[in-house]
Amino acid sequence: MSSSEDLVDEAKRKASYAAIDKHVDASTSIIGIGSGSTVVFCVERLAQRVKEDKSLTIKACIPTSFQARQLIVEHDLPLAELNQHPSIDVAFDGADEVDSELNCIKGGGACQLQEKLVASCAKKFVVVADYRKDSKVLGQQWKKGVPLEIVPMVYVPILSKLKSLGAKPTLRMAVKKAGPVVTDNGNFVIDADFGDIKDPVALNERLIRIPGIVETGLFCNMASWAYFGMENGEVKTTQAKA
């Protein structure tokens, strides 16, 4: 692993530990577990806290993907489903990019549908990321586009409609598998590049109205807090405006 990768991993770890330590206490019962490389450190710290702090009574961890489910099981945390616990105390997840208003682009790991379902049921949604994900405007640093989970039978019409909206869309192809990426829900993913996104709320509303788009990777007005591990070893904390 290169020194730059070590720096990024350490930034992810510090942000994750700070977020878990701040937002998990004796009153926390149900926790949403996001997906991706940063969440690995969140679960790591959560498992440590559960072992160290006998005042914690975590009743259930709700996963957002196959990966999240495996993390919960591997760390011997209580696994449950959203239908069992529809009200979540706090959910932790990563992001591909976060703007100054805490709007996010998510879905680089193709888990955005379940991630948004869990986040929408959380009383508090905490985003945890490294310094590369901190932006003024969405699209400034994340150049791969907005991930869109779509019904496979209409991917060609959706590509055409996205082009008419000014996007540069591509069907995401799989690695070590012939053909496109298939989500945990059996859908395809289109990455739609809109450049800098000045109004993510308006764009999200336009996209979700297109038949066949199941969910977008734009998480608007959902995050309560964001924790960024910085290059200098500090953690930058931002709270959403009231």
* Average pLDDT for all residues: 97
Number of helices, where a helix is a run of at least 4 consecutive DSSP H or I residues: 6
Helix content range of the residues, please?
Answer: 25-40%
Backbone CA Rg = 18 Å
Q: Report the portion of residues in β strands.
A: 15-25%
The best one-word shape is globular
What string, H for helix and E for strand, traces the elements in order? HEHEHEEEHEEHEEHEEEE
Q: In whole angstroms, how far apart are the ends?
A: 41 Å
**What structural category arises from helix and sheet content?**
alpha/beta
Largest sheet: 6 strands, mixed
Beta-strand segment tally: 13
Largest sheet, spatial ordering of strands: 2-1-3-6-12-13
- Low-confidence segments: none
Write up what this structure looks like:
This protein is an alpha/beta fold and 242 residues long. It contains 6 helices and 13 strands. The protein has helices spanning 3-23, 37-52, 66-74, 112-120, 155-164, 200-208, and strands spanning 30-33, 60-63, 90-93, 97-98, 104-105, 125-130, 146-150, 168-171, 188-193, 213-216, 218-219, 225-229, 235-239. The protein has a 6-stranded mixed beta sheet with strand order 2-1-3-6-12-13, with helices on both faces. Helix 2 (37-52) links the parallel strand 1 and strand 2. Helix 1 packs across helix 2. It is globular and about 55 Å long. The N and C termini lie far apart (41 Å). The model has no long low-confidence stretch (mean pLDDT 97).
